[in-house]
Amino acid sequence: MRGGSSKGIFFRAEALPVDPIERDRLLLRLCGSPDPYGKQIDGIGGGSSSTSKVVILAPSRRPDCDIDYLFGAVSVDSPIIDWSGNCGNLSAAVGPFAISEGWVVVPPNGIATVRIWQANIAKRIIAHVPMQDGLVVEEGGFQLDGVAFPAAEIGLEFLDPGGMGGDAMFPTGRPLDSLDIPGIGRLPATMINAGNPTIFIAATALGLDGTELQDRINNDTMLLARCETIRAHAAVAMGLATSTTEATEKRPATPKLAFVAAPKSYLASDGKRVAKEDIDLLIRILSMGKLHHAVTGTGAVALAVASVIPGTVVHDIATGSGGNGRTRMGHPSGILGVGAEVLLQDGEWIVTKAIMSRSARRIMEGWVRVPSAIPNYSDR
Which of 88, 167, 288, 306 has the fewest CB atoms within 10 Å of its CB? Predict the structure, then answer.
């Protein structure tokens, strides 16, 4: 299925091995990972972080949810599936999948509400899915930058997205920290748990202006290495890894690193002009070691939350966001608006909800064949 600007392989939980090691071996081989050539030619993965993803779904046993949703980021060139975070884009496809499978009782027409339990981060998501004559509406006029064709709009509410598993939204207790990174120096950064753990730094800290597209970043191996060094040290500072080596080798999907800048006009990856006055700030976010072609859904949530909290790198750079309005972010493929509702309670910032629109479509369904001889990577 396509969900937002990502594409993933969706499974019923009952179709996969119960043992996590056996499950991951199967899913890696199915996707065609690890592929030293970076293409996943011998599998059905798409050869990029946006298209090498798996989703496992089942009817929920929780009284306040309809569906249990587990997400895995499949590394293209390493034998790793990172289960540490959510995919905000593919979250848009969970509701339509569940409805099509008959797992949720919904009205035949109008807007269906699907309550989703995001198992990776232990958070609830509410999806609002358009219906007509008992079927999910997929076609429509909603255009999402980063997706080639228009589709029907799906509304997503990420409930209480701040913090994960009872952890604080700001792991260090501060909206702004100064990271001391060997070989790089001191770097102002906002480290936040909202949607997914995310690190925000100024584009200028990397010698960039925030208007860069994929080729500029992804062809610069030294820059990518510097970004990974920053990300790994921040992961340790956030308490998400015990060492930078662990962060790089075992947790490549989260936290994500993003760099932001004040609004500037630029040409998006499809050649259209993004005007300075139409955005509140620029964002470029890395996913699985490469610059994302648009913006991750959870990264957008983190940015929207950070933009309305004084003292963060994002808030200090953004020019037009504030209150509980929508933050308009300019990304490599265009513009995305995300709303965040926050309040200050007993001296602590609380985010009650983040809201965005996405679209989704079932691309195919059927069987995928996997060789009987599957490599064992569990000892690596």
Answer: 167
